[in-house]
Design goal:
By secondary structure, the chain is mainly β. The protein has one domain. It is about 10% helix and about 50% strand. The protein has 2 helices and 14 strands, in the order βαββββββββββββαβ. Strands 1, 3, 4, 5, 8, 9, 10, 11, 12, 13 and 14 form an 11-stranded antiparallel sheet that branches. The longest helix has 9 residues.
Length: about 170
């Protein structure tokens, strides 16, 4: 099947979809007080995928550079408040053949960012008026490792992410 002619129902949800790390999500689910919430533009798509709504962006298709902004607040918690991972308003910054996944630190109106992952995205495919990135590899950054309290070492693969935005 030609990816450029895939029907819309085979496209990822609109925005940024990411499962974070399946083993971590399973761990949270196994805790007696484990909780997962998705609000403010984010939603839980299934047992292992979070979708962040599309925001603004300035991605240049010809150059493969720019920023795509997404909105939403995902919180993964447990251990009576001792464990909290918050993924707030992610952005992806494309720089040619690489990319950076960052989240808002909650300060500065979303402008203060923490880099949580590095991406190796291919060029997007175009489908039905959308730009689509499928199965984008993500490795955790040093700041991302800190976010997960060192559970995952910098450079360790996380789950792939998917992006669909209007052209």
């Amino acid at each position: 099947m030609n990816p450029a002619s895939d029907p819309a129902d085979q496209l990822p949800p609109l925005g940024l979809s990411w499962g974070v790390k399946r083993s971590f999500i399973d761990y949270i689910a196994s805790l007696p007080d484990g909780s997962v919430s998705a609000t403010s533009g984010a939603a839980k798509a299934d047992d292992s995928l979070f979708c962040f709504g599309p925001g603004s962006g300035d991605y240049d298709v010809a150059r493969g550079t720019g920023v795509l902004r997404f909105r939403g607040d995902v919180r993964l918690a447990g251990h009576h408040g001792m464990l909290l991972v918050r993924l707030l308003d992610p952005w992806i910054t494309f720089m040619g053949g690489s990319g950076v996944l960052s989240i808002s630190t909650g300060d500065g109106g979303g402008q203060d960012r923490a880099t949580i992952g590095f991406l190796s995205p291919a060029r997007p495919r175009q489908s039905d008026g959308y730009l689509v990135w499928d199965h984008v590899d993500v490795v955790i950054s040093p700041e991302g490792s800190e976010l997960f309290d060192g559970q995952y070492a910098a450079g360790q693969p996380m789950d792939p992410l998917f992006i669909r935005v209007s052209q």
